[in-house]
Design goal:
The complex is a heterodimer. Chain A is mainly α. Chain A is 79% helix and 0% strand. In chain A, helix 1 packs antiparallel against helix 13, helix 6 packs across helix 9 and helix 6 packs parallel to helix 13. Chain B is of the alpha+beta class. Chain B has two domains: 270 residues, MetI-like fold; 169 residues, Sandwich (Jelly Rolls). Helices cover 54% and strands 16% of the residues of chain B. In chain B, strands 2-3-8-5-6 form a five-stranded antiparallel beta sheet. In chain B, helix 8 crosses helix 12. The longest helix of chain B is centred in the middle third of the chain and has 37 residues. Chain B is elongated, with a radius of gyration of 33 Å. The chains are: A mainly alpha, B alpha+beta. Chains A and B meet through helix 1, helix 8, helix 9, helix 11 and helix 12 of A and helix 9, helix 10, helix 14 and helix 17 of B.
Amino acid sequence: MRGLRRLARFLSIRTASVGASLVIAIFLVIIVANLGGKIDEIIEQEIRLTVNMQLQDPRFKSQLGYSCETMCKGMGVMEEGVLKQCVAQCMQSWVDERTRILMRTYGLDQPFVLRALYYLRDALTLSLGRAQRIYSDTGSREVWAIISERLPQTILLFTTANVVIFFMELFIGLALSRKYGSIFDKLAVTLAPLSSMPGWFYGLFMILTFAFWLKLFPSRGMVSAPPPEDPWLYALDVLWHMVLPIISWIIAYVPIGVYYYRTFFLLFSTEEYVEYAKARGVPSRVIERRYILRPTLPPIITSFALMLIGSWMGAIITETVFQWPGLGMKFYEAINFSDAPVVIGIIAIYAYLLAATVIALDLVYGILDPRVRVGGE
Amino acid sequence: MKVAGIPNRLKAQLKRLVHYKSFVAGMVILTFFVGLSIYAMVTWPYSEAVAKWNNPAVWLDYPKHAKPSWITLFTGVRELEGSLIIDTRLEAKNVVKLRQVLERFGKPFATIERISIGFTYDYDAFPARLVYVVPVNTTDRVFVNMTWRKPSGIEIIIEKNFFTSGELIRSLEPKPGEVPEFALRYVEIVEKVYGVRVNISNLNPTYLLFCDDEYLAKTGALRVLKGSYQVGVETFSSDINSTVDLRLVIQGTIYGLAGTDFLGRDLFMALAWGAPIAMAFGLTASLLSALLQIAIAAISAWFSGVVDVVVQRINEIFMVLPFLPTIVMLWMFYGFDLWTLLWVIILFNTWGSGIKTSRAMFLQIKEMPYIEAAKAYGSSNFRIVMLYMIPRVIPVIIPNIVTAIPSFVFLEAALAMLGIADPRTITWGKVLQEAYTHGALLQGYYHWILAPSIMLFLMGIGFAMIGFTLDRVFNPRLREI
């Protein structure tokens, strides 16, 4: 009970601290983005567009022209040329007035700091506004719609890849630590430098070999065109498309992980309490589970979580290479069309994800680490 | 005694390094890159290289998408390397020029010019494309009649046209759904001679000019006809002072050590110049961010209190900021060149989880007796941090710095893949991105994608091998087992 309360206190402090960091981080992004006046520019552009759209409507234009003419005539202007000039002036002043009003509605006439605060509120509540140039697949221009329809695909591919990679690393590492100095162990050490290259890079080779040369797997996309109708076949099809990206990530990230875990477990297996357990005749499986895996769990989970967040960001290029219709590819599109609202929206989403992971890690640590639970020093 | 001891220990450790095969292999790769860098810097000074690489006009006559030339060693097929250029303005060998001024009622009113050039083509493979230019120094209308005579004796009229712009330029390359006029004439000639109507749709028109007609008529397939070719140009102009020339560019299918890209640029130049840029970029980023990281972590751990809290808060902010999207945003709003990008990357890389780990390390070091002793005899804070704490972690960070070098090179490549690159510099990542976006994978220009990939791969493997071995020698955690 006391432990639980302590944990809750610890967590709430951490949440508050990470939350504050999140707010500051997003605020900094907004300030930096707006130092070049970019966000203001975006909004001003949008306002001018709206006003011009209104003028494009012929009925509205003739109405405005008529009322302007009446006003000019009322002022006593009768001569043809002067009247024309007067009407044009009147219409221009309408445009200016309208823009000014809209600018005020959007808060553009307010000082820089205040404006930044408005944007901060929008970003934090994830009311991300509208994209400038790109659309969602359903045709919406809401940044939120664009992001939310792509997020599941990204999470599907990269969470699967990470879970596969994580368990491979863990079990191969554990198996190798049992056989220190064997051929397999030496092989693992030799292969470790393979991980100096990122997953997307191996993706290029994978596409070259398995898609274009051997024609075993598709080179791009998430489903075949046309997609199979049967849901089971559909799932199989998606799985088939996931093979190459996952393999390229395995080649890129498993070797270093295996090397790391092997060394890690080896270090732990030389601890005195493990030696003592061995001397007592405790079966090696039990030693592994109770004396090696258990105490090493917190750092292992940390590395898994960090890998997971890292993957969502590294995903941007892998998705582009494999044309996987996830958030990363949309991000690529947004860059190419230089669509700032989408880019800022994606930053906000990622910032939330990162903050959530940091807090989740603290929670895991709080549960697993007795120092936090019972309050050591 | 102690002063002499350290270099000796270092020497012994370095000696031990040589026994590791992976270290030797890594050093060989590193030496290769250093050699390549020196070669690049000696051959083309940086500004010259950048200007040349970014000027498409320089590369006009080079074959596009040419494979590396050493590939013929494996295939055994003789192919044309580079381009065969015949310019009547520059050479007179195998060139016959005739000029005739026509007169009517004793007054000159027109000129007829005839140029004939000959060349031998004895390669097994077709040239990739043929470009011909007929420059005339007049703005009047010029009638041109151009014939192509094959070794088999068949003569095709390839040009029968008026032109006025002072220059006639044709580039014979396959265009989907488009058959050039001369190809139709060629089909007729083949039908007349061999009695077979051949199907030439979707063929590279250049191939038609170099193919064996008899073989084509019999089998419907293409084969190169080796031998001497004759190209004739006949122009008729009403400007009596006009002179005509002919420039023929036969673009081959192989070029140099690495082939060429879609603009005909020599990929070897990009590969060579990519090496020093990648090494400078990776080394600077890796070294500076590691040094800044340990400096900040040491200060934070040593001073604790307010300093520590501030550092940790700043660090948390950077941990929450997504690295790649933020860099992309900065680039979109401000745009920067390669070296500004370097500083941005260093900034973002210094902060983050790395400082957390280093700080934990320094918290342990801080409690060690020798630091206690230093405090006791009254060393300054600066002295303790800079001379006693930071050197302590140097053996741990040196391998990390070496191993991290390629990761920055790949980061640059990844950003280039996203289109975030300095438009003027030459990096492997940019070559890779261009190959990827121009469909090198789809169209089978594998050399274009493989050349920068292999360079990146070698650099990754090389530095990783050195780094891993350094780690094993400097930090022998497992030696006692």
